[in-house]
Structures
1.
Amino acid sequence: MLPVRTVLFDLDGTLIDSIRHILDSFHHTFALFGLPARSDDDWLRGVGTPLSVQFDGWTSGEVTVDAMIAAYRMYNLAHHDERVRAYPDAALAVRTLRAQGIRVGIVTSKNRNGTRRGLVVAGLEGEVDGMICADDVENPKPHREPVDRAVALLGADPRSTLFVGDSIHDMQAGRAAEVRIGAALWGPFGRADLAPSEPDHWLESPMDVVKLVLG
């Protein structure tokens, strides 16, 4: 097995603690359009997939997916900086990896503007080597395309690439792209949620990524 030379991170639930804010943004959007409330668990199952996928099937009349996405983003961005923060040691882990010559990329289902906002709040602006966002792909996670594109963007070898994410969608995308996959257990999902994907590595904290990669 080749040593890891490239680490790809999911964003929400992996580098930034934003899941509560994401769920509240979904609840706000449904209430705004008078749609039936859904539980946190219902929304959580789709976290890691694009908004267009999450809202698909809930449209009627003048309620379009585009209108729902716009309402979600307006609320989410208005409250983003006060409610989102980096997970402990997430920024340190990224900086430590890059200081040792490891390439670091972001693979997220967030759009590019939201991704930049998240990186700024996390203190990671300018600290990653590239990112693949929802705007960049035709087939979002759990499809392999986002991971494949990140590998190509960074000039990486899949065999020496590790993708770290918190959701089953991350694990499935990484497995399909034939990179090593690490399950981030500091996010909203536990071992029981992620075990079906059989991750190569179980990671309890961001610094576990550093220990795994640098030894």
2.
Amino acid sequence: MLFQKLMGKGPTSMISPSAPKGLWSWGSYQNGQLGLGDAVSRSSPVQVGASIAWASVSAAQSNVSHATKTDGTLWGWGGNSLGQLGLGDTTSRSSPVQVGTLATWSAVGAGESYRTFAIKTDSTLWAWGDNASNNYGTLGLGDIVNRSSPVQVGTLATWSLLGVASGAAFAVKIDRTLWGWGSNNNGRLGLGDVVFRSSPVQVGTLASWIKIEGGNNQSLGIHV
């Protein structure tokens, strides 16, 4: 489990964007997903390193963790058996390691399986990790080939937010249209059928979506 320690000036104050933000973790150490550099489980929060510049976090059930810093860099640690850390290999890490050298990441999300998605500050969508299990094509890259480094999903620079599930993924564009791809068991993609998709497909015609979440076999969204 991961969380950001956000420090404001009082119980009712707004958190300043420049306020220090430390990263803390606790729970099982399996594959090093706590990011504490060891193989020890924790039953109380422990700070991950000394940095107080964390911006967002994502923890997946496949023992992998990612976080972005306020400088726009992306970091990963934990299990990496299918390249889900995005570090160009399949070696697990027990401490945060920077993903590439770019400082252009704004959001990261991982589901229950071995894959990760992220959005850059230019609104492009990127994916890496498991793309071959059950022939789902869950990375949205139009194939069923695993990736151990971030690969852009399509060519558009219009993505706004993510909703990652087990075997499926969703994203909302800047125009608030909703898109889904991957496993479509039980019609979980919302496309009116049960056909798997290996590339993003628009869900309906509405342009009013503001939130999307996926579960094991179901999906939930909010639109205005």
3.
Amino acid sequence: MAHADSAPPITPADLGLKTSTPPRGLALLAMAILVGFVVLQGRTLWREWGDLQRDMSDVRRTAVIGYPNIHPNPSYARKPPDWFHDEGDSTLLWSGWKGKSHQWFRVGRGEVEQARISQPIGRDVIQAIDYPIVEKDGGAIWKRIPGEAQVVGFEVAGTLAVYPLHVLGKVAVVNDLIGEQPVLVTFNPVRPLGTPVHIFEPIVDGHRITMGMSGYFLDRRPVLYDRGTESLWVQNDEGALESIAGRYRGSRLRSMGKLAPVTWGDWRWQHPRSRLLIGADRSKLLPST
């Protein structure tokens, strides 16, 4: 007698039931729906991940880094109705209010076309940096700058100098001294996107000059003034910094190059021992040259 455990298994056919496999088309449809669901969810998750990354980047970019003394110096003085006028052989351009009187840039008559120049905002309202504060090979601000922040850098006198674009956008001009090499760094805050940073050697007739912001723009380009003669300077179409009015009219500063921005993360990784501009020392008197 056979043991019960050795009996063959009961199949659906033994019970008179019919079996079938799902049609191939139905299986393919189910697979397509599943794949579509995965793709759709994947795209949604990817977009959400991208949004999160952008939000985090914005948080890092707008975090308080603490660059000292790069803010504008607003003036509440109103320009006079004759802010641009001629007197004899001179043209006078209003530069601001000091003490109890208006101050003026005085240049040769006809050297500046009023139709091309902006309304004045006041001399040194946008404050150039005359005495830079720097960190070398690291520091508190060095560590706080987000990796995606834009900077420009170059090597001069054996030193790798780097300048955050955020700082340059606030001050427009940096009168720097790297070792024994004077350097003038300029940037157009009106056209920050796609505008390179220019580096010049600020030497005229064998003497170093320093520049400030006049408060004017000519053809949307910043008009600078040198602190010694108050001649007016503008970058021309060739990228040279040229004096257009005043004692130095026609003089040009030698270009030391123009710089395209890179990310701070890339620069820091490639050049960990750099000299980083972080702000301005405003405790010192403005230079007179």
4.
Amino acid sequence: MSYLGAPLMSEKQDWGTPQAFFDYIQHEFQVQFTLDACASAHNHKVENYMTEQDDALTQDWCRNYIDGSQTFEEVWLNPPFGKGGKLQREFLTRASKQAQAGLCRVFALIPARTDTKLFHDVIWREAGAIYFIKGRLNFEHDDRTPRGSAPFPSMLVIFDGYVPGDGPFVSVLTPTKEERGFYGR
């Protein structure tokens, strides 16, 4: 038997975070997100968000005020997963740089692919914490309705400006089926 095709790839790159999972993360970490750094009009999780047209990779993810002051930001990031991982790498590198500037903490929801160069070169070296998520997530479609279980495991990576010499803190999150976006199943 030969392997044909790539069933784990999707042309759609803007699957939305399940609202119940987003709420679970805010509760679990006692955080109120102030920016969704990679969103669209149909999948943003907070009022302040950046779209593809805003080019988040060139923007500061911290608020700068006219008087020159700044405020600490809690940033949610659900970057594009496919297309060879290039955009994901760019977003995670940007997340690390923004957190190291000391004005934000970035929570990135990404596939749990620990065998990749991205995991070893960026995540393991620059993240403060990694949380593997028990169970698959049920990402949302354009109309904010769940569209089936993701074909991959996920992890939450936190960039907080702390770069540990011996690797990040690692743990597991165990949201319920409902908290992972499965309603009434």
